[in-house]
Design goal:
Elements lengths: L1 H38 L2 H32 L3 H34 L10 H21 L6 H28 L4 H33 L6 H4 L2
Keywords: Cytoplasm, Phosphate transport, Transport
Family: Belongs to the PhoU family.
Protein name: Phosphate-specific transport system accessory protein PhoU
Length: 224
């Protein structure tokens, strides 16, 4: 019985480590995708696209680990919440990887075109999104829901910057219709970064439920 319990603890640790590895990889893809856009670096963009395959593989690995744990170990309520939260987090992280891949593709699309404007707010959005995601993964690994307000605050700032970028790009397109092909990809990038912020919020809210059994979905959007 003791050996079975020790084996179960080791399997939970392995699951946690896989989520941590996945989170570190995805955070790197966010940073690299926007760096490739800012620096017009096609090779870095291609690296992001290539690495997203590993994120997809890790999501499948997490799903398999979780299904096996539920089927074979019959976990108690707190451990079951941990396992099901891991599955949801893996799904969010896979989607973030897809968004980073799409940003890299927009980077390649724009690399040979004259820059529309200096990129200031988009890199700020990317840093906020990366920081928010890192906070959420750290919270999951440590089973600590105390960072939820901090993540909500970062998401609100990402939304604010998205609105600024959108308004500025629309104004540029209205002044000169020839800028549309350069402005639309940047609009998409801003939207993707906003969605990454949403995924970080999903994760931290799942962590709150995991640790406290409390549902806080949408409270961040309604607060302050």
């Amino acid at each position: 019985m003791v050996e079975q319990h020790a084996a179960f603890d080791e399997e939970l640790k392995d699951l946690k480590d896989t989520i941590l590895r996945m989170g570190i990889l995805v955070s790197g893809l966010i940073r690299k995708s926007v760096e490739s856009l800012k620096n017009r670096d096609n090779e870095l963009a291609k690296e992001v696209i290539k690495q997203d395959v590993e994120i997809d593989r890790l999501e499948l690995e997490v799903d398999e680990k979780c299904i096996n744990l539920i089927a074979l170990r019959q976990p108690k309520a707190s451990d079951l919440r941990f396992i099901t939260t891991a599955m949801r987090i893996a799904t969010d992280l896979e989607r973030v990887g897809d968004l980073a891949e799409d940003i890299a593709e927009r980077s390649i699309e724009l690399a040979d075109q004259k820059p529309l404007k200096p990129l200031i707010d988009i890199p700020r959005m990317a840093k906020l999104a990366e920081d928010a995601l890192s906070l959420t993964i750290d919270s999951f690994v440590n089973r600590d829901s105390g960072r939820v307000e901090e993540v909500w605050k970062k998401e609100k700032e990402i939304d604010r910057l998205r609105d600024l970028v959108q308004d500025e790009l629309i104004e540029i397109m209205e002044r000169d219709s020839k800028t549309v092909t350069r402005a639309l990809p940047l609009l998409l990038v801003a939207r993707h970064l906003e969605r990454i912020g949403d995924h970080a919020t999903n994760i931290i809210e799942d962590v709150v439920f995991m640790t406290e059994g409390k549902v806080v979905k949408h409270q961040g959007a309604l607060s302050g």
